[in-house]
Amino acid sequence: MIQTLQKYPEGDEGYIGFVQESAPQILELRGVTKSFRSGRRAVEVLKGVNLTLRKGEVVALVGPSGAGKTTLLHVVAGLLGADSGKGLFQGRALPLEETCRGRERMSLVFQDPYAALSAHLRIRETVLEPLRIKGDREGESRRVREALTSVRLTPPEAYLDRYPGRLSGGQRQRVAIARAIITHPDLLLADEPTSMLDASAGVGILNLIRRLAAGGMGVLITIHDLATACYVADRLLVLFAGTIVEEGPPGEILSRPRHEVTRQLIETAKMRHREVSIP
Ligand SMILES: Nc1ncnc2c1ncn2[C@@H]1O[C@H](COP(=O)(O)OP(=O)(O)OP(=O)(O)O)[C@@H](O)[C@H]1O
């Protein structure tokens, strides 16, 4: 089943592409560590993580629950400070402390599209929020329409004055992505963006992410399900207990898993998807 999932569907959202090996590197992390306090003890959740990501590349952080995927994504986003390590984003030092500094060209999409959008803001205000925070109000009417069109909420006029309460989970996640991309970030961080959606809405979001990457955006995405990761990513990083234990293109990892955790993820994905497996 994992093999069949790797084939992108035909149709206007389908995408097949390859990241050029020569594409510029936009993100690099070296030796990132992070501990949390648990009573008197410090528990090390990230143990010296290295990663790189190129322009137009989708890199998926996969791993079992508690591996440290969200923690790593939050360190990149500046929502959490690392204890040690170095970061480079677009050729400049990325401060790995709890800060927004150096992160003007990146955006984060959260897992829960129900909690991520304010119930009291119309879609127009929600999507425009990042521009208004920056005080960049030029052409906002055009830009909000463009962002909604990019995420296939069309015609945008049908959505602008609505509240999120009237939208499906998949539509809400599209709004959250429209808000994330209205500033044209170079890097999109997405934390399990499909885990709360039904399968068809989830595939729509994954195709949308592929399209954004085809337009040149780098994407770092956390996913616990290996089949989903293989569908969307150019490269997988298997994270286990705070360490990247295996890395490579999906086809390579599926055909020659080297780490026991990867083999377990493959088995879990096979079990999870067996009911829709196409012989
Ligand atoms: N704020 C925190 N304080 C203390 N411990 C934390 C905190 N955030 C995360 N942890 C712990 O760090 C570890 C890694 O958590 P993290 O959420 O990064 O894992 P994950 O791989 O994203 O898991 P999941 O797939 O279940 O979301 C877990 O053991 C978690 O309990």
UniProtKB/TrEMBL annotation:
Protein's UniProt keywords contain S-adenosyl-L-methionine: no
Pfam families: ABC_tran (PF00005)
Keyword annotations from UniProtKB, A to Z: ATP-binding, Nucleotide-binding, Transport
GO MF, one example: ATP binding
Gene3D superfamilies linked to this entry: P-loop containing nucleotide triphosphate hydrolases (3.40.50.300)
Domain ABC transporter, chain residue ranges per copy: 27-266
CDD domains: ABC_NikE_OppD_transporters (cd03257)
Any one biological process term the GO annotation gives: transmembrane transport
Protein name: ABC transporter domain-containing protein
Native source species: Desulforhabdus amnigena
Lineage summary: Bacteria, Pseudomonadati, Thermodesulfobacteriota, Syntrophobacteria, Syntrophobacterales
